[in-house]
């Protein structure tokens, strides 16, 4: 297997989409169990076929566009999140020899796509011509701007230690110890930012169902809504994968399992963590969330960079 | 209840006579012993001002404001002639006493001066009376229909307004009428007292509801926003109106009981309690001890069920997803217990005039004892998950706060009043149905904010459990229905042996009981505040007027005061903390 071979590319594309869709089932079952319920358990063994049933349903739903919406933008918006998130997987180093592209600026590329993804929410809210959607997209824009700043800064410590933006090199550099230990502050900040970037509860302010009835996707239904939905799960998977790559040694692990299995297992832990967060926490208010970002997380990441730099200079 | 009011009647009636002259008032006796005075309209505003602010220990709480269409009433002995009577019911918390004021109005163009200037809570009440009876309140700031649609013809609680669809023309909706109806619904900010723009901003108007995940039913708040900050919030109610009061005038005294279950639909049979107690007071029925304890026990179970739902939705509305599922499981256990006595879960309609529907089944206490052992552990868990959660605290502390004085000005009762620090619980202040025999505390808050309102209710569940425990330990023996001719249905065992009881049984099943004429108001501490039934009997098989005073109605009126200057997300927390159901507001 080599990075970028057609078989690998197709394999990654298919498996990410399938995993993201299957996550819907994982989330519903896990949350069900944590909430003393069963969750979907009727379609197929353990309810595994639920995703198929949902997809069939969502494909055959009327593809409705509100008459007051801005049609082209309304249609394009949900595709953006799918496309950017899928493109993000291009740089993910699944295992040695498994990946789409080995790219020197892999981390920067991930940040760039992560920023682009928010256009999906902003445009959806704008094109819906609905006040709830507008409030949702305002929140999405503000949230992304605030949290991207320190998401990038949080990863800079890792870059300084590894001396590279190349995700594969970052993984290789963790042979002697995962970066989660020297970069614990950076890890925490990155984790918070990742939840915010995926717009996941408790930071799901752009869609906050109880407040703005679904926010940017209020007017969406059928497959267009499904794309937001799958896009969100792609985002969870992607961000979990990047977290594992940056702080938990990527594919590295004891030899009794192949590298790819280690990578998948570690990613799965984070995916479950994302789901657990949703089941456990309440949602902060929008202004509290913003001030938390600017007043707590930003200074924390800046301090982390200063300390990492100082330690790096004093211990050559 | 009788003792404090009589004592007080001796002090407030002379005080009023001294202030306004003895010949101004006509006194009326009612079955509930509340001093009831007829007065001329010209001194109304002055009298209300006097009672609310001039005397010491004032009658500050406007408990109710309603009207009666008296045009076909036969038993009006000693009352001044009147086509429409407007009734003001004020309560003094310090004196623990009530006073009722009545004003007689003519048939043509009935009008009164508005008391909104001296009593802010009267705003919606006066609008409701205008809507339902067509009585004008001069000087009211915004006298528009409150509950019926703006295009409605007539005033539904007038006796000449049809009560059944069969009394009306078949319904049709031609295109032009539909067009008019839709036009009438168009949102015009000015009609709601809102500016479209200020000097530096154009405001955003947001229609929160009638369908919105967090408005707990069909309820609409029109929001005037500056960004996400609320400049003004105007509640709009009436979407859940079913005409419960009008139905009271065409159901027999007995067959109306199931309707009361659906007023505060989370309170189930607790809603029956003020109604049956009011009818019993009119009929002079003494309820046996066992029935009273069964009533208390079931009411407290419903209080727990209602508070659990509140607790879960409160957490959910501030974005916490899981608690409501755990609480529904507990709530299901409560319903299982209720079902084991009554055969129904949510609306058991278990109370009867003169007692309860049937005796407790054999082994009735097993499920309860299990629940008493189980529930405190769960509450302790929820304390950790919800009340001690920093995010929840940050979302709800200091949000939607009001003082005790503001609460009383706006007729707030129940947990919303106690959260401001005033330990006023009707079960303690005027024990009914034997609450004086139970040991329990009245939890209070300090800040009167969303968090405190929730904390008070959480503690109330523990107190309810204490009461239930005492019910189980000390359940008296004896009959579950009163030996009284008006008990409905009468004790069945005797009907097959004794011709008098058989006749009585036949009559009260085929006609319903005939309740002696009179007026009575009975109030209880319901799940959401004070719930009172003000019944007028004209000596028939049906009520002449059934007035349902519900706690949620005035609570919603306070939303603008609580939410101005807050964020949209805060409004959601405020709505959740009020704990209302729309059926309890619109009736």
TrEMBL record, chain A:
Q: Which family does it belong to?
A: Belongs to the complex I subunit 1 family.
NCBIfam families xrefs:
PRK06076.1-1 (NF004740), PRK06076.1-2 (NF004741)
Keywords in alphabetical order, please.
Answer: Cell membrane, Membrane, NAD, Quinone, Translocase, Transmembrane, Transmembrane helix, Ubiquinone
* Cellular compartments per GO CC: plasma membrane
Q: What is this protein called?
A: NADH-quinone oxidoreductase subunit H
Q: Which gene encodes it?
A: nuoH
Note the topology in the membrane: Multi-pass membrane protein
Q: Which reaction does it catalyse?
A: a quinone + NADH + 5 H(+)(in) = a quinol + NAD(+) + 4 H(+)(out)
The UniProt entry, under Pfam families, shows: NADHdh
Write the Enzyme Commission number(s) for this entry: 7.1.1.-
Coarse class of the protein's main subcellular location: membrane
Primary role: NDH-1 shuttles electrons from NADH, via FMN and iron-sulfur (Fe-S) centers, to quinones in the respiratory chain. The immediate electron acceptor for the enzyme in this species is believed to be ubiquinone. Couples the redox reaction to proton translocation (for every two electrons transferred, four hydrogen ions are translocated across the cytoplasmic membrane), and thus conserves the redox energy in a proton gradient. This subunit may bind ubiquinone.
Under the subunit heading, UniProt states: NDH-1 is composed of 14 different subunits. Subunits NuoA, H, J, K, L, M, N constitute the membrane sector of the complex.
Which organism does this sequence originate in? Methylococcus capsulatus
UniProt record, GO biological process: aerobic respiration
Location in the cell: Cell membrane; Membrane
Where do transmembrane segments lie in this chain?
6-25, 73-95, 107-126, 147-165, 177-196, 233-254, 260-280, 292-315
Q: Which GO terms describe its molecular function?
A: NADH dehydrogenase activity; oxidoreductase activity, acting on NAD(P)H, quinone or similar compound as acceptor; quinone binding
Top-tier EC class: translocase
Q: Which domain of life is it from?
A: Bacteria
Q: Which InterPro entries match?
A: NADH_UbQ_OxRdtase_su1/FPO, NADH_UbQ_OxRdtase_su1_CS
Automatic annotation (TrEMBL), chain B:
In Gene Ontology terms, what is a biological process of this protein? Answer: respiratory electron transport chain
What catalytic activity is recorded?
a quinone + NADH + 5 H(+)(in) = a quinol + NAD(+) + 4 H(+)(out)
Q: Could you cite one Gene Ontology molecular function of this protein? A: NADH dehydrogenase (quinone) (non-electrogenic) activity
Q: Where is this region: NADH dehydrogenase I subunit D?
A: 202-587
Among its keywords, does the record have Ribonucleoprotein? no
One matching Pfam family is Complex1_49kDa
Report the locations given in the UniProt record: Cell inner membrane; Cell membrane
Broad class of enzyme this protein falls into? translocase
In residue numbers, the region (NADH dehydrogenase I subunit C) covers: 1-178
From which domain of life does this come? Bacteria
Gene Ontology cellular-component terms for this entry are: NADH dehydrogenase complex; plasma membrane
Q: Which residues form the NADH:ubiquinone oxidoreductase 30kDa subunit domain?
A: 38-166
- Is the keyword Cell inner membrane assigned to this protein? yes
Keywords, sorted A to Z: Cell inner membrane, Cell membrane, Membrane, Multifunctional enzyme, NAD, Quinone, Translocase, Transport, Ubiquinone
The UniProt function text for this chain reads: NDH-1 shuttles electrons from NADH, via FMN and iron-sulfur (Fe-S) centers, to quinones in the respiratory chain. The immediate electron acceptor for the enzyme in this species is believed to be ubiquinone. Couples the redox reaction to proton translocation (for every two electrons transferred, four hydrogen ions are translocated across the cytoplasmic membrane), and thus conserves the redox energy in a proton gradient.
Subunit details = NDH-1 is composed of 13 different subunits. Subunits NuoB, CD, E, F, and G constitute the peripheral sector of the complex.
By sequence similarity, the record places it as follows: In the N-terminal section; belongs to the complex I 30 kDa subunit family. In the C-terminal section; belongs to the complex I 49 kDa subunit family.
> Cross-referenced PANTHER family, in alphabetical order?
NADH-QUINONE OXIDOREDUCTASE SUBUNIT C_D, NADH-UBIQUINONE OXIDOREDUCTASE 49 KDA SUBUNIT
What is the name of the protein in this document?
Answer: NADH-quinone oxidoreductase subunit C/D
């Amino acid at each position: 297997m080599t990075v970028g071979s057609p078989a690998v590319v197709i394999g990654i594309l298919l498996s990410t989409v399938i995993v993201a869709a299957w996550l819907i089932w994982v989330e519903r079952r896990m949350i069900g169990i944590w909430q003393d319920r069963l969750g979907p358990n009727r379609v197929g063994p353990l309810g595994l076929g639920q995703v198929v049933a949902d997809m069939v349903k969502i494909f055959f739903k009327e593809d409705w566009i509100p008459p007051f919406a801005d049609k082209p933008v309304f249609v394009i918006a949900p595709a953006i999140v799918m496309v950017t998130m899928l493109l993000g997987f291009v740089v993910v180093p699944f295992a040695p020899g498994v990946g789409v592209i080995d790219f020197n600026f892999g981390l920067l590329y991930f940040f760039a796509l992560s920023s682009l993804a928010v256009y999906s929410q902003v445009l959806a809210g704008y094109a819906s011509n609905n006040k709830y959607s507008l409030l949702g997209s305002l929140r999405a824009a503000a949230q992304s701007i605030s949290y991207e700043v320190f998401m990038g800064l949080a990863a800079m410590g890792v870059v300084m230690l590894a001396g590279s933006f190349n995700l594969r090199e970052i993984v290789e550099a963790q042979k002697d110890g995962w970066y989660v230990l020297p970069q614990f502050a950076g890890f925490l900040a990155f984790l918070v930012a990742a939840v915010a970037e995926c717009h996941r509860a408790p930071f799901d302010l752009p869609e906050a169902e109880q407040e703005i009835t679904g926010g940017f996707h209020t007017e969406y239904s059928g497959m267009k809504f499904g794309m937001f939905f799958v896009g969100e799960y792609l985002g969870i998977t992607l961000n979990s994968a990047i977290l594992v790559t940056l702080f938990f040694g990527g594919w590295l692990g004891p030899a009794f399992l192949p590298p790819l299995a280690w990578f998948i297992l570690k990613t799965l832990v984070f995916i479950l963590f994302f789901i657990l967060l949703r089941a456990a926490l309440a949602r902060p208010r929008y202004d509290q969330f913003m001030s938390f970002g600017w007043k707590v997380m930003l200074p924390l990441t800046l301090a982390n960079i200063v300390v990492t730099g100082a330690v790096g200079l004093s211990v050559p | 209840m009788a003792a404090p009011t009589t004592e007080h009647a001796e002090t407030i009636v002379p005080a009023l006579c001294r202030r306004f002259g003895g010949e101004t008032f006509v006194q009326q006796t009612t079955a509930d012993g509340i001093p009831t005075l007829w007065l001329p309209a010209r001194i109304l505003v002055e009298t209300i001002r006097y009672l609310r602010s001039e005397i010491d220990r004032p009658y500050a709480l406007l408990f109710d404001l309603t009207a009666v269409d008296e045009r076909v009433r036969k038993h009006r002995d000693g009352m001044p002639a009147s086509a429409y009577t407007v009734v003001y019911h004020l309560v003094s918390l310090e004196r623990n006493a009530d006073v009722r004021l009545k004003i007689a109005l003519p048939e043509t163009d009935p009008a009164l001066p508005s008391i909104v200037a001296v009593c802010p809570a009267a705003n919606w009440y006066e609008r409701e009376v205008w809507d339902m009876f067509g009585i004008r309140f001069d000087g009211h700031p915004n006298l528009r229909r409150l509950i019926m649609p703006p295009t409605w013809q007539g005033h539904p609680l007038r006796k000449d307004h049809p009560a059944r669809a069969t009394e009306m023309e078949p319904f049709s909706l031609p295109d032009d009428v539909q067009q008019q109806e839709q036009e009438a619904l168009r949102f015009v900010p000015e009609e709601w007292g809102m500016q479209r723009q200020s000097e530096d901003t154009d405001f955003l108007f947001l229609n929160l509801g009638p369908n919105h995940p967090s408005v707990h039913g069909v309820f609409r708040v029109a929001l005037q926003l500056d960004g996400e900050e609320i400049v003004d919030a105007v509640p709009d109610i009436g979407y859940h109106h079913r005409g419960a009061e009008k139905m009271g005038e065409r159901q027999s005294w007995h067959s109306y009981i199931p309707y009361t279950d659906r007023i505060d639909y989370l309170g189930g049979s607790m809603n029956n309690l003020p109604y049956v107690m009011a009818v019993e007071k009119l009929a002079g029925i003494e309820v046996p001890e066992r029935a009273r304890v069964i009533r208390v026990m079931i009411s407290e179970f419903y209080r727990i069920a209602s508070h659990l739902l509140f607790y879960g939705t409160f957490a959910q509305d501030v974005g916490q997803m899981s608690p409501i599922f755990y609480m529904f499981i507990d709530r299901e256990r409560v319903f299982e217990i209720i079902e084991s006595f009554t055969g129904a879960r949510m609306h058991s309609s278990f109370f009867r005039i003169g007692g309860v529907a049937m005796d407790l089944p054999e082994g009735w206490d097993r499920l309860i004892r299990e629940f008493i052992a189980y529930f405190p552990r769960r509450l302790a868990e929820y304390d950790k998950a919800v009340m001690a959660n920093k995010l929840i605290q940050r979302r709800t502390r200091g949000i939607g706060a009001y003082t005790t004085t503001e609460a009383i000005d706006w007729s707030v009762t129940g947990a919303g009043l106690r959260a401001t620090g005033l330990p006023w619980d009707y079960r303690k202040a005027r024990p009914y149905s034997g609450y004086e025999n139970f040991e329990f505390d009245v939890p209070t808050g300090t800040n009167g904010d969303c968090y405190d309102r929730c904390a008070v209710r959480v503690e109330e569940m523990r107190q309810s459990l204490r009461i239930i425990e005492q019910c189980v330990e000390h359940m008296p023996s004896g009959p579950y229905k009163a030996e009284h001719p008006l008990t409905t249905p009468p004790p069945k065992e005797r009907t097959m042996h004794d011709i008098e009881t058989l006749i009585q049984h036949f009559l009260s099943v085929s006609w319903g009981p005939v309740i002696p004429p009179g007026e009575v108001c009975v109030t209880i501490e319901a799940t959401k505040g004070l719930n009172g039934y003000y019944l007028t009997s004209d000596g028939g098989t049906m009520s002449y007027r059934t007035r349902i005073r519900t706690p949620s109605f005035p609570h919603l009126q306070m939303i603008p005061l609580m939410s101005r200057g807050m964020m949209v997300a805060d409004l959601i927390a405020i709505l959740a903390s009020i704990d209302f159901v729309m059926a309890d507001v619109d009736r």
